[in-house]
Specification:
Helices cover about 30% and strands about 20% of the residues. It has about 400 residues and is α+β, with helices and mostly antiparallel strands. The chain has 2 domains: about 100 residues, no CATH class; about 200 residues, 3-Layer(aba) Sandwich (NADH Oxidase). The radius of gyration is 25 Å and the shape is globular. The protein binds flavin mononucleotide (FMN).
Length: about 400
Amino acid sequence: MSPPFEGHSEMKLRRCTTVMFEPREEVSLGLEAILAGRADVTTQTTWLALAAHLDQSVPVSPAQRELLGSLSSRQWTESSDVAGARADWEALLEAGLLISDGDEHARHRQRDEGMRDGHWWPLAALVHRHARWSGVNSAAQMRDSAMVTAKDLRRQLGAPPPTVQAHPGTYQPLPAVGATAYDQLLERRTTCRNFDATRPVDLEQLAQLLQRTVKAQAVVEMDADTAFLKKNVPSGGGLHPTETYLLVQRVEGLEPGLYHYHPVQHALLALPRHCERPLRDVAEAMLSGQDWFADAAAHLVLVPRFARTNWKYRNHAKAYRALLLDVGHISQAVYMAATEAGLAAFVTAAINEVDTEAVFALDGVTQSPVAIMGVGWRSATLDTAEFDPNKVVWP
Ligand SMILES: Cc1cc2nc3c(=O)[nH]c(=O)nc-3n(C[C@H](O)[C@H](O)[C@H](O)COP(=O)(O)O)c2cc1C
């Protein structure tokens, strides 16, 4: 029997809701072998626990792994009844892999309950949690590893798979249909990496962009507490789980700052700022150092609320995929609406989710950003490459 946790009376323990283990192999060259001029490679395997409510993987011993497996994630076990060494379960408790009913472990318990109540499919929960970045500078990493241009990529990675996978046989040619105004609009859509850092966008332009993309075009009430939105973009299950948060830098008639867009009211709510850093720096940090995007007049942070999708798709293998596709649809709609208005736009998934959550006070468990978009005027000069081979945007 293990004695109660130091300084506390008896407590109840359970395993966290979602945890999986990875045997991670690390290869190293022994010093002795190097000195002796041999290339002996030593392999060491560490078991890592990946939990859906923890941002980092946690190394565990085989005994701790077994201990975790021996406890239920649903039913409490008195700490005095836990089979295994006290030091092992104490370490698991501190790491958050074990959940206790004690006040001192409330944070891990609340995050774990948030995951459990979110009805996640376990693998999707892990993918989402462990793909989140904090403080990453992807732009600097690209530059440091000389992986900036397509030529750099080819040199370092060899040739990519071909552009098209042609099957054997004769392809039947399709008629080339004459272009309409819509084709010309499509042609003008090019990801912008050169924003005018001085020219503001009109409030009407921002309003029109939101109205055309994420605004609710109808509210269908099924019951007093159950409603569905109709939008101009499709959404898996018709659930429209994605919220739009804004970082506004240069919109005439709108204070620079942080906002949440209400898609039914078609209105913006100013949000408190939790740090004094200039908005451009905040944007660049959220965009993992991609300075070529930072000067957009307004950034749109696309933030799914997982519980809305998982309410219908409980523990469902496709729910997370549908949710990511939703964000992609919004992104294309914003690109097109911006292009039609003469504005430029970008989307990126290379974002520091953890830092972005801090900016907008999102808990990262029930809602977390998937992509960031930006809109604004294109600058007159091309400083960072854009992909415009037909010279439509940059003649
Ligand atoms: C999901 C997604 C993520 C993207 N992430 C980045 C990014 O991190 N940085 C960037 O400069 N462009 C990013 N882009 C833009 C692509 O690089 C761009 O779409 C591609 O080069 C084709 O150019 P085009 O959009 O002008 O046709 C992203 C696009 C998509 C759809």
